[in-house]
Design a protein that fits this description.
Elements lengths: L3 E5 L11 E8 L2 H14 L3 E4 L5 E3 L3 E8 L4 E6 L3 E7 L4 H10 L24 E2 L2 E2 L4 E8 L5 E5 L11 H5 L4 E11 L11 H4 L7 H15 L7 E5 L5 E3 H10 L6 E2 L4 E3 L2 H7 L6 E2 L2 E3 L6 E4 L5 H19 L8 E3 L2
Parallel strand pairs: 2-5, 3-5, 4-20
Antiparallel strand pairs: 1-2, 6-7, 7-12, 8-9, 10-11, 10-12, 13-19, 14-16, 15-16, 17-18, 18-19
């Protein structure tokens, strides 16, 4: 394992924020994981695990070790009358994994096409899009407990998935290195195409994993910026979950407010709509701004610092709270040493 000092993380975060890590390494094998655990035990310094860096915002330099997970591999591990079980290593690119399943005739991940990041990062915040979450298809995952080096298999239930949340984010943040996930691909899929824009784009087409994936890729490309072209972390804010009474009261004042029934009698509404109503879409402050086509996406127009992006994020949070009485929550991990 090659350890480097004062290493730039600009190309390891999709915001393209210029920041440095005191120590840096890449993890491409189980031997590297063992070496990393030994280094951590000896150094006693903090450890930051990165996948594609697509769900993170650095406010300043990181004063510990940043380890980028690069392990590879996709394999069929089991099959029964209902499902095919597919295991993918943590360092695999998420979208490329989705397309591998689609192109090999496996269903289940098609709605999650073109989400940036890696396989290992997907369970952290229970990634989701167009009516599907990782929790819907994950069978189990394998992780290493960083304090002991022990390998553990987590069932779907043990991951404690919630909306953009999981055991690894809420309960055990920084305590595990996710090595792989295993998803279950249904042999008799129930296609989810009712989300706005998806059903319309599939008219006159045969409905299958590939056509759904292609439709969602086109929709995402039409709305969201490519991080290679303009730095961003995708959706920066979670869609708020409101009580029925809170949602009804706001609906009376704002008839265009959307509402999607959730568990526990909650209603999910659109953070993008709330932000747009406050006039933020396309707004810019220096090199940090809000994407002109989607109010949920904060962007780096050039050399914005993490502090500049975080400042505009907090201005948006305060603006929405003042107008609607709703405090938005951010999706990315904010690293502020």
């Amino acid at each position: 394992m090659n350890i480097q000092k004062n290493h730039s993380l600009k190309k390891y975060n999709s915001f393209s924020v210029e920041t440095k890590s005191r120590y840096f390494c890449q993890i491409a094998s189980n031997d590297h994981i063992d070496a990393l655990l030994e280094w951590r035990q000896q150094s006693r310094l903090p450890l930051l695990l990165l996948g594609g860096g697509s769900n993170i915002l650095f406010i300043n330099d990181y004063q510990g070790m940043t380890a980028v997970i690069k392990t590879k591999g996709i394999v069929i591990v089991n099959e029964d009358s209902n499902y095919t079980y597919i295991k993918a290593s943590a360092g695999e690119n998420w979208h490329q994994f989705v397309r591998w399943t689609v192109e090999n005739g496996y269903a289940g991940l098609e709605n999650l096409s073109l989400i940036p990041g890696t396989v290992g990062a997907a369970p952290m915040q229970n990634i989701g899009a167009y009516g599907v979450e990782l929790a819907d298809v994950l069978y189990e995952l394998e992780a290493v407990e960083l304090s002991t080096g022990k390998r553990k298999i987590f069932s779907q239930q043990e991951c404690l998935f919630h909306y953009r949340d999981s055991f690894f984010k809420a309960n055990a943040f920084g305590q595990y290195l996710i090595q792989s996930i295993t998803i279950k691909s249904p042999k008799k899929p129930q296609w989810k195409i009712e989300y706005s824009g998806v059903k319309e784009s599939l008219k006159a087409q045969i409905i299958n994993a590939e056509t759904i994936s292609n439709s969602i890729i086109a929709l995402r490309q039409s709305k969201l910026p490519d991080p290679v072209v303009i730095g961003n972390a995708g959706s920066f804010f979670k869609n708020p979950l409101l009580s029925q009474s809170k949602w009804q009261a706001l609906k009376e004042l704002h008839p265009d407010l959307s509402g999607y029934p959730q568990a526990d009698e909650l209603m999910k509404t659109s953070a993008a709509w709330l932000i747009d109503q406050c006039g933020w879409k396309g707004k810019r402050k220096g090199n940090a701004g809000v994407y002109k086509k989607h109010a949920l996406v904060l962007v780096n127009h050039g050399d914005a610092s993490g502090e500049e992006i975080w400042k505009i994020a907090n201005d948006i949070i305060n603006s929405v709270n003042d107008k609607f009485g709703i405090k938005l929550e951010v999706e990315p991990r904010v690293i502020n040493c």
